[in-house]
């Protein structure tokens, strides 16, 4: 795949401090959660995996999910189809050009090329798939595959969230209603990071947290995701066929700060194109998200003021991406 970016300086991030290259570690054990125990385990196994999930969310905000049940064939087909989209002639991709944060289909480079001071070495396609399903018309197989994939990930997400609420001592039905998860917002993001001639000077995505409740990510066989943990950047090496799950800003609000959204970034390399597909799941866009009342008390007052999820997302997507900048605005 040819890179849509240029090395005239404008697309390479010259701000090397952002990279913090000294501080990257690889040999850290990231929590692994066996999804099948949550759905098919004995009551004892389920109890234990809910505890593991709670610990992973509290200590990391990030974990590897295995035995998730999403067919490999479907995942691989969709990855190929996203690749097919990025390979289309520029004019076809420009039909979906990112002009506004709330457009249901958005293609672009960097994060928000209109406002980014430094451009990121990334090409993306963001497609809203729930409560209304959207899809680009090319490649022709996109619609069917994305429909099936997004439905599959919604199911997975609902079950994972169920386990997370349980670990927080919250009632699943209550949370479904409070966050209007029947109309949950879902967006599928394809990222393409072409080989970069000067990877030491560029970033694919800068340090940021995701806006939703949880994000469910998989990548091709090229690493590059780094997550912030205990003051270090941990380079993630996924297990074969796994998903990488991270908690987002709405989870931090709902859990009243107990489960922090994890700050992560994407590094690029000189040799091989990297691709990732990230599905972000959140409450319905019109839900005003606040801490679950059961987690607020005299000793633990609410940490964030409420904001409609749709407004939160629009603000985050319409500005430059910077750590947890939107969440910080809501801190009480
Ligand atoms: O490509 C990756 O590994 C990270 C992508 C990401 O963080 C995002 O799309 O929000
Ligand atoms: Fe992200």
From TrEMBL:
Classification via PROSITE patterns: FE2OG_OXY (PS51471)
Keywords: Iron, Metal-binding, Oxidoreductase
Family annotation (InterPro entries): DIOX_N, IPNS-like_FE2OG_OXY, IPNS-like_sf, Oxoglu/Fe-dep_dioxygenase_dom, Plant_2OG-oxidoreductases
Protein name: Fe2OG dioxygenase domain-containing protein
Domain of life of the native organism: Eukaryota
Keyword Acetylation: no
Keyword tRNA-binding assigned: no
Residue stretches making up the Fe2OG dioxygenase domain: 184-283
Entry similarity comment: Belongs to the iron/ascorbate-dependent oxidoreductase family.
Annotated GO MF terms: metal ion binding; oxidoreductase activity
A Pfam family recorded for this sequence: DIOX_N
